[in-house]
Design goal:
The chain has 346 residues and is of the alpha/beta class. It has 14 helices and 14 strands. The longest helix has 24 residues, at 115-138.
Length: 346
């Protein structure tokens, strides 16, 4: 276990190996305060010097924009065992801009060094959860899968995909660790790489059917070599009743996945008797595109970049009470700002 940083001289003494394979922080480094902004360590030094490090305070966190609250359990992990009380929104609860979503009571020594980390956890998680929820609502009951891992650093990909499922409402995730953390099995079809290497979509589909477990759904990409509607029929005829779905991931260079394409594929599949074959769509989807493609007949949606690059919901922490006296910086309201939705969390 790494000792938590307590003073600036410990920051200067901290050594990082040049042989380190990844720049991402370990769990122990996060708990030790290594991911905080250095000025919070300086603050601890100053408050210790003037005898005010243990003065009881109240700190409140509020967002800049509306959203869905997430990240609570990770934030609490930083504070467990310390001399604080925490009140917070339950995960999944909507909030408005400037609502208090997280409140800490206790000495600054117990939580000050974690301000950066707590804000980062809540801001990132709430942003991802909000974006995922927007897509889920746009799908009107049809499943949305989170395909966002390739758009972010692998150190945070499991955090994002877990949040997208558990809080955002996605039906599953493609990232193995993210799905496992959400308590479900990861889902995904196959990449274009497999089809390109094999050389033919139907041949790949037959190999896929032969190799994967019986309980796995047979969903095949149909935009690699031929017209999507033509390829959908070829695959459906080859696999028969085993084919669960076809996936459209047409690149922008070919016009992307359009409502007209979805309607044509659906029409041709139905006319050929493959009414049970679902249509999965992916590729740069947003809530508006999900809604549009759902109306055209798409059954499943793989959303990646919209969730991964969600609009940032910045979080801010303010000290609002010091030793029982309400206070605040200019422009903010001194004292506790009530939010009846907060619950005792720690």
């Amino acid at each position: 276990m790494i000792k938590r940083l307590e003073m600036l001289e410990e920051v200067h003494a901290l050594q990082v190996s040049p042989e380190r394979p990844f720049a991402s922080a370990t769990h122990e480094e996060i708990m030790a305060g290594h991911t905080t902004d250095v000025y919070f360590v300086k603050t601890v030094d100053i408050l210790r010097a003037c005898g005010k490090l243990e003065v009881p305070v109240v700190a409140e966190i509020f967002p800049r924009y509306d959203g869905i609250f997430a990240g609570l359990n990770e934030a609490l992990s930083l504070l467990k065992g310390s001399k604080v009380e925490v009140y917070a929104l339950p995960e999944g609860v909507p909030f408005k801009a400037k609502d208090v979503v997280f409140r800490i009571h206790g000495p600054y020594s117990a939580f000050g060094i974690y301000e950066t980390t707590i804000l980062g956890i809540l801001a990132s998680s709430s942003s991802w959860a909000t974006a995922a929820r927007e897509c889920v609502e746009a799908a009107c009951g049809r499943p949305v899968l989170c395909f966002g891992a390739r758009h972010v650093h692998p150190a945070v990909a499991p955090v994002m995909e877990r949040v997208a499922v558990v809080v955002g409402g996605c039906s599953s995730a493609s990232c193995i660790l993210g799905a496992k953390l959400a308590g479900i099995e990861p889902q995904g079809t196959i990449p274009h790489a497999a089809i390109l290497i094999v050389g033919d979509t139907v041949e790949l589909a037959l190999l896929y059917d032969k190799c994967i477990p019986e309980e796995e759904a047979r969903t095949i990409l149909v935009d690699t070599f031929k017209d999507e509607a033509e390829e959908s029929l070829r695959v459906a005829e080859a696999l028969g009743g085993k084919l669960a779905g076809v996936r459209l991931d047409t690149p922008g260079e070919r016009g992307g996945v359009t409502p007209e394409l979805v309607r044509e594929v659906r029409w041709r599949l139905d006319k050929a008797g493959f009414t049970d074959v679902k249509i999965v769509v992916s590729g740069g989807l947003s809530p508006d595109r999900v809604r549009e493609l759902a109306q055209a007949g798409a059954d499943f949606f793989g959303v990646g970049s919209y969730i991964a690059h969600a609009r940032a919901i910045d979080m801010t922490m303010d000290i609002k009470v010091v030793d029982g006296v309400p206070t605040a910086k200019r422009g903010r309201l001194p004292g506790i700002v009530e939010n009846p939705l907060l619950r005792r969390a720690l």
